[in-house]
Amino acid sequence: MTESASSPSISDSRLISHSMSDAVTDDALREAAAARIRAAGDLPGASVDRQLALLDALAQTELGRFLLRHRGLDAAWTQRLVSHKPGSAASVALTGIEKDLYERLPATCATRERYGIFRRELQALLRSGATLASVPCGLMGDLLSLDYRQYDDVSLIGIDLDAAALAQVKALTSEREPNPRVTLSCEDAWALSLDGRADVLTSNGLNIYEPDDARVTDLYRSFLRALKPGGTLVTSFLTPPPTLSAESPWNMERVDPAALALQFVLFVRIVDVRWSAFRTHEQTRRQLEEAGFAEIRFVDDSARMFPTVIAKRPG
Predict the structure, then answer these.
(1) What interhelical angle do 48-59 and 26-40 show, nearest 10?
(2) pLDDT in tens, 135-147
(3) Are residues 225 and 149 in the same domain?
(4) Using one digit for the tens of pLDDT, what is the confidence trace for 119-130?
(5) Is the pLDDT score of 6 beyond 50?
(6) Strands (E) located in the chain
(7) Do 232 and 302 fall into the same domain?
(8) Apex CA 277: angle with CA 239 and CA 70, to 5°?
(9) Domain holding 163: CATH number?
């Protein structure tokens, strides 16, 4: 395994998903959240007292404290959530708000379903001699969990700005079989150095933190340049809820209303999460086409909250 480039800290401002200084104490973060709640007032079905109780419960959990501090998820927490198996021994051990965060919230369920869709689509794209890149790679669960037994000489490239994520991938892959080969690089996704080397590029969890549509289109252009002619992009996007857009595609028959209401209180009112850049299927199609992609197709999760999109670089 090889590595390249520099290693920014978690407070690097380019880490749009979870950058935050550790200088602020957990108590200060909790008090800031409590002040926001008191200033905003009651919500339908969630009084200020109820919101403050949820804040206290959140602050008692490791995941809750991370969310309050970073307003997003890093590689490790993302992997823990997508690989969690409801009904497992780990699931039985969860109680209270942790059970909600891991298993009940619609966003968590959609994220876990999206992860399964990615793995299925990526497995179908595997070929001997192929180069697959993940940007941002996180812990590379989408690629490292694939079955390579029928394929030889496969190369994996993990690119991320989070030095901690790259260090964890290095530890995870240090004793793996040499196939697939793993290369790690610390780079900005908008300025990739791949230059047409990837047969497949997978990307999840970056565009959902970027509200600027022009920058997301530029991100897709960067992905296009990284792919070989005929190469495939596998990415995803968050769709807007019905309360924000009349064009929302959400399938409300697959959404638990009580869990959705709880999710709003936790993620919007208490945590104020960063992953709030919603786009419709048509917006995403236009952005990908503007970036130069073709043969665009969508694979929806059951609630149509976190669709997967597959697109080709012409050639």
Answers:
(1) 160
(2) 999 999 999 999 9
(3) yes
(4) 999 999 999 999
(5) no
(6) 2-4, 131-134, 155-159, 181-185, 198-203, 227-236, 294-299, 308-312
(7) yes
(8) 120
(9) 3.40.50.150
